């Protein structure tokens, strides 16, 4: 970093290890400009708040380019490397406009960058693609009033709306020559499984693809990117035809589909090498991942060497090298290259490591459940144990570094993370299984792992904490209500607490997801919303509950959390609430540390060790 952006955080000499992990400098995988690969954009917490940084690899200069009280992480670098686009919302509410600034412009705190597309009203973002001509942008938007819209903006011309639908949709990609626009949409009403459209910039249709199994069951499709060659109509997409995510090449002009037939278990994604001759394959299986190179001419699949653990992102550079963001549960994340070098090494004290993760497979009511276990080194059970439940729900825990679980381990707790039904990475059937009995199915799997943790001698049954953020926070509140004798404490961050009110207050894309998960609106299937809502079971809660919430959160809005807390207070149930001025989580390091400290303190006061 340049001197002006070096961290001003306090000295770490006497700081506990868990706090050092949060304060340690972190960077994202750098994005690079297609036609100016020496220019990159990345996210860093160098100042104590996560912001966007420009990096000129030719000179080595790295400069902070956004400065907002609650941080900035959504940014896109134009293919010519001349412009940085970033999304400007209000204190984390995710409702705002895209702005842009010249790559080389100095940051002046207090100045406001121009709107990327003047005249477009604020909205929730639904994808952005920038043309190589330096004057074209394709902008996806979502609002409660309009549903999903997509607009083409060219400098000097009027902005044109080319797509509109009530259901969720977004920009997938813009072809190399700017003549084709790929759109992911859910016009069929299934927000978990997108279909695809390819449009011209005037909105006229080129091609459509909608996968079904047996003509009735929707299968997911996703846009992975157009070939990086002028005049090339090949679109790389992901599909689920064999029960998990795989890539294929779809020529949208001829309709020809080339199935790669990769013999890899688990989920597989891909992106183009810069010359279009090969694909960089990202393979995820049983909570770990690795990289491969697939030659399109020969069909040869070659491993790209990476250490055991998790690759969270990767990109192929013009010289054929690959840069990737890697970590394991024991080792903090780093941006590495296949040259053997560390790509970005921000200044400051490095993050301490943690303990490795252990794999456990438990028989559950819907099949084998994969759990990841961390515990203090050299300590035998039974231990106070934290069930740290991931969000999503379409996500999964992996063998990757996480400062939160590491903090619990530092304080003497075992940590159990469960990839319940609904998690990704274990096949389409596992991910799709939670429909209609939302929340209850996930808790069945968590209960099976809980039983194993107790009978194996790992966990003290009287000192079990259920915790998580977002969907994990939702499962925490639902769990302490539906399994009141199973847990000693509940600690929920940004949760769904009152499902009906959450539905009415949340952003439009999440309403569509809830209709898919539950089979309709609260008015259409009230019994399902009631069965899946933590508010239904709030009077059964026996244990102390801690809740943290962002007052500007559009995903798990504050009103529905207040409704739940009011019910706890009415019967004088033991609970604490912490509200903070941000959205669905904070990008400010001090705030993140404060929240972890409050959670650890709550557990110590009510549970002890």
Architecture overview:
Helix 1 (17-23) packs antiparallel against helix 2. The strands form 9 sheets. Strands 31-32-34-33-35-36-37-38 form an 8-stranded mixed sheet, sandwiched between helices. A 4-stranded antiparallel sheet has the order 1-2-3-4, with no helix packed on it. Residues 1-9 have low confidence and may be disordered. The chain is built from 10 helices and 38 strands. It has 609 residues and is an alpha+beta fold.
SSE blueprint and pairings:
Elements: H1 17-23, E1 31-33, E2 36-44, E3 51-56, E4 62-64, E5 75-77, E6 83-89, E7 96-102, E8 114-115, E9 124-130, E10 136-143, E11 147-154, E12 160-165, E13 169-174, E14 181-185, E15 195-199, E16 205-209, E17 212-213, E18 217-218, E19 221-226, E20 234-239, E21 246-251, E22 257-259, E23 267-272, E24 278-285, E25 288-295, E26 301-304, E27 310-316, E28 322-327, E29 334-337, E30 342-344, E31 358-364, E32 367-374, E33 383-389, H2 403-410, E34 414-419, H3 428-432, H4 440-455, E35 459-469, H5 471-482, E36 489-493, H6 499-505, H7 508-518, H8 526-532, E37 545-550, H9 558-570, E38 575-580, H10 589-606
Parallel strand pairs: 33-34, 33-35, 35-36, 36-37, 37-38
Antiparallel strand pairs: 1-2, 2-3, 3-4, 5-6, 6-7, 7-8, 9-10, 10-11, 11-12, 13-14, 14-15, 15-16, 17-18, 19-20, 20-21, 21-22, 23-24, 24-25, 25-26, 27-28, 28-29, 29-30, 31-32, 32-34
């Amino acid at each position: 970093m340049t001197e002006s952006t070096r961290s001003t955080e306090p000295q770490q000499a006497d700081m506990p290890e868990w706090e050092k992990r949060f304060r340690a400098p972190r960077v994202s995988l750098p994005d690079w400009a297609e036609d100016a690969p020496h220019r990159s954009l990345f996210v860093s917490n160098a100042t104590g708040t996560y912001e966007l940084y420009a990096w000129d690899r030719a000179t080595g200069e790295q400069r902070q380019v956004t400065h907002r009280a609650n941080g900035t992480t959504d940014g896109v670098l134009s293919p010519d490397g001349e412009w940085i686009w970033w999304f400007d919302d209000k204190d984390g509410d995710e409702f705002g406009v895209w702005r842009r600034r010249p790559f080389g412009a100095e940051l002046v705190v207090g100045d406001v960058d121009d709107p990327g597309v003047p005249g477009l009203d604020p909205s929730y973002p639904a994808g952005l693609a920038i043309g190589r001509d330096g004057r074209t942008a394709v902008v996806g938007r979502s609002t409660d009033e309009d549903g999903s819209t997509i607009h083409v903006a060219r400098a000097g011309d009027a902005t044109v709306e080319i797509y509109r639908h009530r259901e969720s949709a977004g920009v997938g990609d813009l072809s190399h020559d700017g003549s084709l626009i790929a759109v992911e949409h859910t016009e069929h009403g299934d927000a978990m499984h997108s279909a695809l459209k390819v449009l011209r910039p005037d909105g006229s249709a080129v091609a459509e693809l909608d996968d079904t199994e047996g003509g009735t069951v929707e299968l997911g499709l996703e846009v992975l990117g157009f070939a990086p060659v002028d005049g090339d109509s090949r679109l790389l997409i992901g599909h689920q035809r064999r029960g998990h995510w795989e890539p294929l090449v779809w020529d949208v002009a001829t309709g020809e589909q080339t199935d790669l037939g990769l013999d890899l278990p688990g989920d597989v994604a891909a992106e183009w090498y810069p010359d279009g001759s090969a694909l960089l394959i990202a393979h995820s299986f049983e909570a770990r991942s690795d990289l491969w190179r697939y030659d399109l001419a020969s069909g040869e699949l070659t491993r790209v060497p990476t250490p055991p653990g998790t690759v969270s992102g990767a990109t192929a550079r013009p010289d054929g090298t690959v840069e990737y963001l890697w970590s394991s549960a024991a080792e903090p994340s780093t941006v590495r290259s296949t040259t053997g070098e560390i790509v970005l090494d921000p200044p400051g004290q490095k993050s301490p490591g943690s303990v490795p993760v252990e794999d456990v497979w438990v028989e559950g009511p819907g099949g084998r459940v994969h759990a990841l276990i961390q515990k203090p080194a050299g300590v035998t059970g039974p231990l106070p144990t934290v069930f740290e439940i991931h969000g999503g729900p379409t996500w999964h825990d992996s063998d990757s570094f996480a400062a939160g679980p590491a903090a619990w381990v530092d304080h003497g707790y075992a940590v159990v993370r469960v990839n319940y039904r609904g998690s990704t990475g274990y096949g389409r059937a596992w991910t799709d299984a939670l429909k209609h009995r939302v929340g209850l199915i996930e808790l069945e799997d968590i209960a099976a792992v809980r039983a194993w943790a107790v009978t194996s001698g790992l966990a003290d049954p009287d000192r079990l904490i259920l915790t998580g953020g977002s969907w994990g926070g939702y499962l925490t509140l639902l769990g302490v209500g539906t399994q009141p004798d199973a847990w000693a404490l509940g600690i929920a961050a940004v949760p769904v607490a009152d499902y009906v009110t959450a539905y009415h207050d949340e952003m439009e894309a999440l309403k569509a997801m809830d209709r898919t998960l539950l089979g309709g609106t609260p008015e259409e299937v009230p019994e399902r919303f009631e069965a899946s809502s933590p508010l239904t079971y709030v009077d059964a809660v026996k244990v102390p509950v801690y809740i943290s919430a962002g007052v500007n959160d559009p995903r798990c809005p504050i009103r529905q959390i207040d409704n739940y807390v009011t019910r706890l207070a009415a019967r004088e149930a033991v609970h604490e609430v912490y509200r903070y001025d941000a959205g669905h989580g904070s990008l400010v390091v001090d705030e993140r540390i404060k929240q972890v400290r409050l959670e650890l303190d709550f557990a110590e006061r009510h549970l002890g060790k």
